[in-house]
């Protein structure tokens, strides 16, 4: 069931008995901006730390425990040109409990409390909590550099994207973060609550008769919504962007970015999906079998599509002195796809794997909830397992070859370990 | 076939044992598209000293052999098991822990064919000197990668401190030196000993149309193979001090990280056996740790407020065949301050303001909810209930076990377990910036 509650506020209910749980999600959606990413990321910490009724994290934790170990998560992320501030809860379906409790209403009220009744004094967030959450976020951002896979991905993003908003990690910028005050963040929050497009999504055995009454705990005023097109595009570079860094690590990281022209469920999407799966997207892929298994050159080697931003990234963990060899072998795999030099059997299997993956994802309430979001921005995603399977099976070998040929290598980032010599 | 069920939850579990000793468990989930199957042998990285099947004397094999065997089983003379699953679009994987090795696939079609592939590739070993050599490069990379991960180093340093002799102290994957010594013969020997059907179980969960038919499929597959007469598996472990006096109390390392890390480890000096008793111990210890260190702990909130710990703080209770221990820790500006604070809470556990009936009631409610929520996940169901260690307990008994825990139980647990002589500390400190 999809229904408009107010202008700019939509409710989606997916009624199902498949799960032991109910999943409730509220998403606040706005055009992505550099300042916005950082502020939303800080808001996710600050709003989740206290509210008018729950004065600290212990009070929040106690309430979640009292709701039978309800799961609660607040986070901010980016999807193409959109910034999404998301609050989700997972509660046990009340019919499985011995006690009679209206967990649905309690959960909606809980989200309403944290999101709409923040811990605010004199038009600013509680400064004590604000300061602590900000410090924690700074530390978290700094610690990402310790996870070398994540660090290499961050560096590649900076190297590839031309738009500073797209270069930025989802959690924002640490220098900008330092300048934010409790007053300024509260002003940003008020504007977010008043102006963002709101999507509320429930998945599970929902008491629909009570939903609208329950939503009195979580009410949003009507708003006029203008959002950009979700897909991000950028012109090609004249020459490949490269960066090499040396750090005291045992394993080198070699990451690459290829621009593609196909977008999420748009023209050539299925062919690109199959092509990427063949290239490096599955354990049967050419990157996995040739870089990792056959050549024994890497512990991991894979590729991934960001179909909202038109890019395929390759990530590998390698011995640093093997860098040039690995680069050559990766590009050789793409050339093989272009030349149609892959087995028909592998091609068919790759399609079956994608179909298997799609069907399996229908067993996840979180995925079903995300599908509701996708459908509102990309209506073409509204398909069932059978339609998806048909579309994938219909992809021709030639279409896959064409998509591989269209990939444009744009950026190469190399994190070089110091313990090895480059050959 | 034995049937266990909980009509209130709408969940059921079938169980049977084939004549060759293989245990099969079937857990149909209505509404699900996927089927997940996992074949487990009660054999892991700690099983390095044993009497090989058909022999009389103990052997000690190189560290990392169980994990190496797991990798190598996928590769056959004329096929690769990964690819064979792939023919039906299924995905497959495997993992090795301290005490078990599991092989799994997930599929949305062709269950019978995939089951045959699983049983065949795990039960029909094929190793050559050449393929074994090649694998050493791949696993060597894996070991190196983990060596760069500070959280992994922290955990293994703590375990190494707690267990000066027990093989749990060594990385599951072994070391670059130990895997260099692995031979095809050693792999065949380990396989013949630990991959006997009587030492294994097959757990299938998700979309299952007809349980009887699935049993018939597995039976037909097993009927085509000949297995050696089952033999008793004899393992040996080195001695460790009962009173914990051989524990190394402290170690610190430096790594290229921005923020320090701190961990406290506590060695369980009591063996809690297996099955129901072990499971009860696990439930009690997890409730105790949640009461003292969980989300509703005022002491942890205070440490968070003053900046001693942050969101990375966590704890774990590991209870497996032949060992059990608690680890607690996370990132810290001041690693010493965090480990001191953790030990302080442990030492005063039963007089802690969080150690109350009210808090336990809340923590139990949350545990019940989390237990119910776990039935959403095929992987969670299979991974948890295919562990031989807890095998005699029904998944549906767990709720009752949680409900019956009292504060007195937790007091006993804290008094027995949190002994200063059983504890160790590890700090990882940011390296002096040479490579900024």
From TrEMBL, chain A:
Segments crossing the lipid bilayer: none
Region forming the signal peptide: none
Residue stretches making up the Peptidase M16 C-terminal domain: 180-353
Matching Pfam families: Peptidase_M16_C
Domain of life of the source: Bacteria
Molecular function, one GO term: metal ion binding
Protein name according to UniProt: Peptidase M16 C-terminal domain-containing protein
Automatic annotation (TrEMBL), chain B:
UniProt keyword list: Hydrolase, Metal-binding, Metalloprotease, Protease, Zinc
GO molecular function: metal ion binding; metallopeptidase activity
Listed SUPFAM superfamilies: LuxS/MPP-like metallohydrolase
Range of residues in the leader sequence: none
Source superkingdom: Bacteria
Gene Ontology BP terms: proteolysis
Pfam families: Peptidase_M16, Peptidase_M16_C
Residue stretches making up the Peptidase M16 C-terminal domain: 182-365
Record InterPro entries: Metalloenz_LuxS/M16, Pept_M16_N, Peptidase_M16, Peptidase_M16_C
Chain ranges passing through the membrane: none
Peptidase M16 N-terminal domain segment(s): 63-175
PANTHER family, per database record: INSULIN-DEGRADING ENZYME-RELATED, NARDILYSIN
Family per similarity comment: Belongs to the peptidase M16 family.
Protein name in UniProt: Insulinase family protein
